[in-house]
Design a protein that fits this description.
Elements: H1 3-17, E1 25-33, E2 37-39, H2 51-62, E3 66-70, H3 71-77, E4 92-96, E5 116-121, E6 135-140, H4 150-159, E7 164-169, H5 171-179, E8 185-191, E9 198-199, E10 214-223, E11 226-234
Parallel strand pairs: 1-7, 1-8, 3-4, 3-7, 4-5, 5-6
Antiparallel strand pairs: 2-9, 8-11, 10-11
Bound molecules: NADP nicotinamide-adenine-dinucleotide phosphate.
NADP nicotinamide-adenine-dinucleotide phosphate (NAP) binds near residues 77 and 98.
């Protein structure tokens, strides 16, 4: 069985056995160098993965109902978040954007079949320049948060029909999902370079290594020049 088939089967079984009805089944999927860097420096768009792993990313997109990134990734990479290098449906694009900094000329406004969802704070400013564009602004009650709070945001996504969510980054978003124990699965593309740049995972409030999120069972296989590592994310009860 090819790597692509293995990952598709594994994801299907994980989604099927997912119990919660309060939030989507969530997969973290991103590319990193062997030292954990996702880019050379924050705000820099860098293509890390080889063409085969790039295809796998598009396959993963097609296997989820929604795809989520932080606004900093939109500002630096201007992604389309569509399925172009695989056959399948486009996931719903979703951006965490507390202060509505989405650029009016973002490629996401030209999405072929979906209005991008901008998750923002209820009390946040509504940018006039964004009003007429091809997106839906969804306001989440912040309760004193500086960021869009993830639990109510995920619960709302589930209510809106998103049963599976792929989180592509960047680091602040990956870190927050791990800190709160809200990612269920991970697919990492590890590119065999050491670049000493901006790391995928920041402070997730772990003081004791025994309660760190664990990838188990872990799977790995070479794909093109890269190593793909995937598995379930397990948290100690104290994290959840
Ligand atoms: N290698 C890869 O696979 C990959 C993938 C994606 C991105 N990247 C790289 O990662 C870099 C961007 O990452 P980043 O860490 O700077 O930013 P990010 O994670 O893309 O976005 C973070 C921003 O999202 C907003 N946000 C709203 N609610 C949030 C919440 N609950 N948790 C976290 N963020 C929330 C915040 O801005 P507001 O306060 O304005 O809302 C926050 O500053 C870029 O250089 C990009 O190229 C690499």
């Amino acid at each position: 069985m090819s790597l692509n088939q293995q990952i598709e089967r594994w994801l299907a079984s994980r989604k099927k056995s997912f119990q919660s009805t309060n939030r989507p089944f969530t997969t973290l999927a991103y590319a990193q160098a062997w030292d954990g860097s996702i880019t050379t420096c924050r705000g820099q768009a860098v293509a890390l993965s080889c063409s085969e792993s790039g295809q796998l990313t598009h396959q993963l997109r097609s296997l989820h109902d929604g795809i989520l990134v932080g606004i900093e990734t939109v500002l630096s990479d201007d992604p389309q978040l569509t399925v172009r290098e695989w056959t399948g449906k486009n996931p719903q694009p979703i951006i965490l954007d507390s202060r509505l900094r989405m650029p009016p000329d973002s490629k996401l406004h030209d999405h072929p079949d979906k209005k991008c969802w901008l998750l923002t704070l209820e009390q946040g400013d509504g940018s006039e320049s964004l009003k007429s564009l091809n997106h839906e602004i969804i306001r989440i009650r912040g309760h004193g948060h500086d960021f869009v709070p993830l639990l109510p945001a995920l619960s709302l996504l589930r209510e809106k029909g998103i049963e599976s969510l792929m989180v592509e980054g960047g680091a602040k978003v990956i870190t927050e999902f791990l800190r709160l124990g809200l990612a269920d699965a991970i697919v990492m593309t590890m590119t065999p370079k050491l670049i000493g740049g901006y790391k995928a995972v920041g402070d997730i409030d772990i003081e004791d290594i025994s309660v760190a999120p664990l990838i188990s069972p872990i799977n790995f296989e070479k794909l093109g020049d890269d190593l793909i590592v995937w598995g379930d994310l397990n948290y100690s009860e104290s994290v959840k």
